[in-house]
Design brief:
Elements: H1 2-5, H2 20-37, E1 44-48, E2 50-51, H3 54-59, E3 67-71, H4 84-95, E4 100-103, H5 105-111, E5 120-123, H6 127-133, E6 137-140, E7 146-151, E8 154-160, H7 161-168, E9 178-179, H8 184-194, E10 203-206, E11 211-214, H9 218-223, E12 226-227, H10 233-239, H11 242-254, E13 257-258, H12 260-268, H13 278-289, H14 294-303, H15 307-310, H16 312-320, H17 332-341, H18 352-367, H19 372-383, H20 388-396, H21 417-438, H22 441-445, H23 464-474, H24 496-501, H25 504-519, H26 522-529
Helix pairs in contact: 7-8, 11-13, 11-14, 14-17, 17-18, 17-25, 18-21, 18-23, 18-25, 19-20, 19-21, 19-25, 21-23
Keywords: Nucleotide-binding, RNA-binding, Transferase
Family: Belongs to the tRNA nucleotidyltransferase/poly(A) polymerase family.
Pfam families: PolyA_pol, PolyA_pol_RNAbd
Length: 530
């Protein structure tokens, strides 16, 4: 029974799929065609020049964008692409006579034919009116209050134009800025978009009129695969430094590049992220690493000098191995997260304990390179809840070639059973020790001490609850017997609902799968048989 449950050891575990880059090019190409087709009269509902003011013009290279009303069908958007809980919220507010729109990144993703991570709704209703509309609803946030509407197990975020208006100030009748030839509704929509971070997030979609409103030139930047701020990047990032990390996350996920001005400010204002509280940093890092774009996120964090602030231990690893800022090569850390990305997507995320466990494991093996057989037995023991005899027996029968290019792996040695068990237990102890070090401010502050020109950071944003959860992952590996009460996962199919919740057996299963595929990559097996 146990061996059938561990079938990933004896045969390939990853279902072949189209490479991420190819998928993006395909989607991006179709999106470009749709946007370019909008220039034809029957598709373009309306396009006008915009006098958005110098502040917005500077953020767009000094050229004020044209604002457009576009047919959503010609952009490839249909209402069936909207999640059911969001449709319920839209319909309920619409029935009460309020205007409702989808706004921000979800509109961008729909245009790119991608699955949005979530859907944000904005309405003409006051937040207190939204509260009256839904039985389970709460207002959160002080600076930027929004409503969390609970629809079953889902939460839909709803904001109000009136909230934006109070922050923005001004009167439509007295305002000289804004879109040319706009009416009051255009002005209100434009004013909302002006408060957003990046042009590609400054889009509104009316699912009833089937119109997309673009006041900030977002469609053009989607066509160019570009991320840049609506207002000048230096002002935008100083107003809200979380936009730096959000920009990295968007660029990594979509494969977009920063505009020159935005890239310059991401790099030169990277120190601003130290203003963010730990919970916000944890949230942003989880968005980067848990939703299918971890490898690209790590590369961008390193490229723009953010990694040494957020994860100085991993930054020191890059420096130690001569990994340059724009390096196209890979390494074991990036391979681990690349294999994680293959299993995840925006609508199939993992729990933070998985990526934190991967970071700790990699630090342990980079500090003390391991025999590939030891790592294999470690994965197997973790997967089956600590049954060491079974793990050792299967590890000895592995014939798949390991990746000799990884310096974290030592030369294979033929160990007897007792020695192999001891090595596996020692590896588990090393990982647990690293976990404690990664949450120790002094240790973190010393990570880059050998590189005095690099910024020194003692930032620790991992909460205690997450540390304890990851520690629990590795406690099953001990010399004697299986962990009490552990029921090993059978089969290789991932239960994504349990994975997102941090179910211990599911996280262990996926962790073991990722590490095993990194040590014994399928490509080596295929090349040997050719």
């Amino acid at each position: 029974m146990a061996i059938s449950g561990l079938s990933f050891v004896c045969r390939p575990i990853l279902v072949p799929r189209i490479p991420r880059a190819s998928c993006f090019r395909k989607v991006r190409f179709s999106s470009i065609v749709a946007i370019q087709a909008l220039d034809e009269p029957e598709f373009l509902v309306e396009s006008k020049s915009s006098s958005l003011g110098a502040k917005v013009g500077e953020g767009n290279g000094g050229k004020p964008p044209e604002w457009k009303r576009l047919n959503s069908k010609e952009l490839g958007i249909s209402t069936s692409m909207i999640a059911k809980p969001t449709r319920k919220v839209l319909n309920a507010l619409r029935r009460k006579g309020y205007e409702v729109y989808l706004v921000g990144g979800c509109v961008r993703d729909l245009i790119l034919n991608r699955t949005p991570k979530d859907f944000d709704v904005i309405t003409s209703a006051e937040l207190k009116e939204v509260m009256r509309t839904f039985s389970w609803c709460e207002i959160i946030g002080r600076r930027f209050p929004i409503c969390h509407v609970h629809i079953g197990d889902d939460i839909v975020e709803v904001s109000s134009f009136s909230t934006i208006g109070k922050r923005f100030g001004g009167d439509f009748r007295q305002c000289d800025e804004g879109p040319i030839d706009c009416d009051r509704k255009d002005y209100v929509r434009w004013r909302n978009c002006l408060q957003r971070d990046f042009t590609i997030n400054g889009l509104l979609f009316d699912p009833y009129a089937k119109l997309v409103y673009d006041y900030m030139g977002g469609l053009e930047d989607i066509r160019k695969a570009k991320v840049h701020t609506i207002i000048p990047a230096s002002t935008s990032f100083q107003d809200d430094c979380a936009r730096i990390l959000r920009g990295v996350r968007i660029a990594a996920r979509l494969g977009f590049r920063f505009s020159r001005e935005t890239a310059h400010c991401v790099k030169n204002l990277s120190h601003l992220i130290s203003r963010l509280d730990k919970s916000r940093l944890m949230m942003e890092m989880n968005y980067m690493l848990a939703y299918g774009s971890a490898e690209a996120s790590l590369r961008l964090l390193w490229k723009f000098g953010l990694l040494e602030i957020l994860l100085p231990i991993q930054a020191a690893y890059f420096v130690r191995h001569g990994f340059k800022r724009r390096d196209k090569r890979s390494n074991m850390l990036l391979c681990l997260f690349s294999n994680l990305d293959r299993l995840l997507a925006p609508d199939r995320p993992c729990h933070g304990s998985l990526w934190f466990g991967i970071l700790a494991f990699h630090k342990a093996v980079s500090d003390q390179p391991q025999n590939p057989m030891v790592v294999a037995a470690f994965c197997l023991a973790l997967h089956n809840g600590g049954d060491m005899s079974e793990a050792v027996d299967i590890a000895r029968r592995i014939t798949r070639p390991y990746d000799v290019s990884l310096p974290e792996l030592s030369e294979p040695q033929d160990l007897d059973t007792k020695s192999l068990v001891a090595e596996v237990v020692d590896l588990a102890a090393s990982v647990k020790l690293v976990l404690s070090k990664m949450t120790d401010e002094y240790y973190v502050s010393q990570a880059m001490s050998d590189y005095p020109k690099a910024p020194q950071s003692d930032m620790v944003f991992i909460p205690l609850a997450l540390y304890l959860k990851v520690l629990r992952m590795f406690e099953c590996i001990q010399k004697h017997g299986r962990e009490r009460g552990c029921v090993p996962k059978l089969g290789k199919k991932i239960n994504y609902e349990l994975l997102a919740m941090g179910n211990l057996e599911e996280v262990r299963h996926v962790f073991a799968r990722i590490v095993f595929d990194t040590i014994y990559p399928l490509t080596l097996t295929q090349s040997r048989t050719m």
